[in-house]
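dumping this here before i forget
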Amino acid sequence: MKNLQVSRGIESLDYEDLCIHQDIDMPVGYKPPKFDIFNGTGDPHAHLRAYCDKLVGVGRNEKLRIKLFIRSLTGEELTWYTRQDMQNWRTRQDMADDFINLFRFNREITPNRAQQRIYFEKIMGMMGQKFSELVKMGDFLEEGIHSGKAQPMAAL
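structure:
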């Protein structure tokens, strides 16, 4: 039935198709913790560390760790997770690798404290300018920082 529905562009509403790892049960007496929610911003590695830290009581059950990860996502990140083929994730590490690769840009574009000062000083000096000019300056500063041409005063 699933193949017929998918070929017509209709997603199945069967429990077996909606539930991720329906064959996995929570350990008796286990209450899942309240996980921090990842919304696509911030460091995905830090999110995974916080997530793993809250898995006390799960033990080494890889499928249960993967199943619980959905509780730490929202928005587009949740949509990404639910559209994955769970057969590709044999271990939590497989899932973590895909998650980190998807959100790698978050770690690459997040300015450090020294870079934030450069942004702040230049952008504040442009108060009253058109928004399009602020965007151009931001792009210019970012390129300068990444290429090493712009440095914070403390580094000089």
